[in-house]
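Hi,

I'm pasting everything inline rather than attaching a file, because the server keeps stripping attachments. The sequence lines come first, and each chain or strand is labelled.
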Amino acid sequence: MKKTSILLGSLLMLLSISAYGQTNDKLVSSKTHMKFYSHTAVEDIEANNYASVSTINKGTGEVVFSVPMQSFEFEKSLMQKHFNSDKFLDTKEYPKAKLKGKITNLNDVDFTKDGKYSVVVEGELTIKGKTNAITEKGTIDVKGNTIKVSSSFNITLADYGITFAQGKPSTNIAKEVEVTVHSEYSAE
Amino acid sequence: MMKKKLFKIAAILAVAGLIIGVGVMLYMFNMPHRDIQSAKVDYSLTSTQIVSEYLSDKDAANEKYLAEDGDSKILEVTGIVSKISEDFNSQKVVLLKGNEDKAGVSAVFTAETNPNVSNLKVGETITVKGVIRSGASYDEDLELYENVILEKSDIIQN
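And the predicted assembly:
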């Protein structure tokens, strides 16, 4: 009888600790930067987005980015219109893109110790309603209460149903686009 | 004689056409971004109203507010300042959110309009004009409610 109550008690304690831990493990960031960069012999095009929302879970290693597509800003307004149109990203139909992944080497990261940690994120990227598996490298920078995540990788536009067979876009936009991601989380 | 004159007219017309054509192309290519602050307001509402509109029917709200070419609706949103922060582009971000609401309206300012936020205090009620970029919804991967995003914002004086 005594044994079971001790067991129950410790189980309850464990449960409450893990529940407490869970709520505390997830960090939220709305301070983000996402950049698309396309390089061709004809021209370089870039678009910047500062409005994504991201979460990172220190306990499970889950990383999520939700990207409002109409927040991508181009230098030329005509390019921005093209980007949003149904021929390209169709942002009215698909207002958000999503990156959802998990850090595969979470054991290498010590969120309590300052330092830069190389991580591998495995997951899925959804753009224009099409989802593809991705495995990309990134860096987690821990400094006091601030955690910064950064990553840079290439995506093939055709994988997301973005194709242009003719005209200016086919010569001026690269088939592979570089995506750069930055986000900053602070433990409150 | 007559033939020569005709040829001359045709040549002038062709050159004029070319100049106009190139001019239009250059104009299209270098067309400036829409000036949100001097454009007409499409809808005036409170942060609570637009959030509840999005949370009750996201698709209908997107249909109403988002434009296919990205030149989406220009809104004047009134709400309570619940948070003031800054993004990676040094732009001020003011969150308008009702105390009972699950989400709010995140108004992103610009380098030009940033100074107008400097005296702002949490708890004040203000009206902000800007262009909507995306709506509010619950995201099951983030496990939280996302705010309506308004950009190119400025405070409207009443």
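Chain A has one domain: 25-186.

If the labels don't parse on your end, tell me and I'll reformat.
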